[in-house]
Amino acid sequence: MKFHGAGRLAAAAVVATLARADGDLDLILYGADGCVGHFAASHLAKQPNLKWAIAGRTKAHLQAVADDLAKEGGNSSKPEIIVAALDGKSDPKTWVRRAKAVVTAAGPFSVHGGEEVVKACAETGVHYADTSDEFYWQRRMIDAHDASAQKSGAKILFSTGFCMMAGDLGSQLAIESLGASKDTQVAVDAWLETYNGGLSAGVLNTKKAIANASFPKEWGIDPYVLAPEADASLRVDTTVEGMSFPKWVSGEGLVVKNLFGVYDARLMRRSFTHLEQKVQLRVGASTGMYPRWAAFVAKNHAFASKKCPTEKVFDDGSWAYRFKASTNGKSETVLLSGQGDPGYRFTAWGLAEAGLCLAGKTSGCARDNQRGGIMTSMSALNAGALQKRLESVELLKVEKVKAESEVIV
Q1: Going by fewer Cβ within 10 Å, which terminus of the chain is more open, N or C?
Q2: Structure confidence by residue, pLDDT tens digits, 313-333
């Protein structure tokens, strides 16, 4: 594709170091032969001096990806190929432990053996990132593997594509701009204003998986389902999206449901509680988002299919996500935006960049601590460093909005 606690922490660091002692790769990308995986591979192939591998179930499919990368060229365009079926017949640890970080785009994760990679990484101290959106699967991974990841020092990050990473980063940048003290309750409004991209088969398959899944009824309505260990003092929300729709918001107009809001909100609250932030969150969308999206899809024939998006859809898409943090009569607004199909370009490159951060290839990106566990992009990575990196690869632009009509870049 051409287009584009001191004692415990010290002990965990030792375990993680020993677990990764035999690693000869910076990164392994699993699911490289899917659409998102292929785009992520193309992005990784352009990075300098990257020791990496592409992995998946079928050698022929992976070889086709490798051939494409070699034709495209790039500083790291000749990754190793690892054939590994997540079928329970072989132990993923044999290849997972070769890397500093493993990233995977092989979803839906609840039906394609996703737990095997999470378990292997958590137990070997290898960092992990994915593009998962199945909250019930994420909760089961937290219950089953958070403790072992804490022990090994592995940072396990869910949903590092557009759904969640943009919301997580934007909310933290808005909160940081506000400068409120740590124990102050903050209100964050996250409004998706533009989403011009194709309808992906991956998103539809994930929605189908969620619709057919069984899980405790209370999980579906618990705003802190992905932060089960959160202290009661940090649980300030009572609904997943933080509001009902449609709703008129003073100074902002009519707000409607954000199609991706429930995915973002549950994990954003895991960020807030991990960072010991008391945040009242509302996620929604502007009324103009859906008509613009429908027009984009119709104009570009970007309907869901098993094929990857055209170069035009990949390049001509766009998105914008606004975040307002408020407390005690003071507020700060940050606008994140970007070019390219958010569901493919941002998701693929976001996954790849999360892996590069976790593998230590992006200076200052990972938070400077030895904490491991099932985390989020913002509880594991530095917001400022991630912003700088994503801006440098032209994945997003961040603007501080001082007033309704004044934008400070």
Answers
A1: C
A2: 999 999 999 999 999 999 999
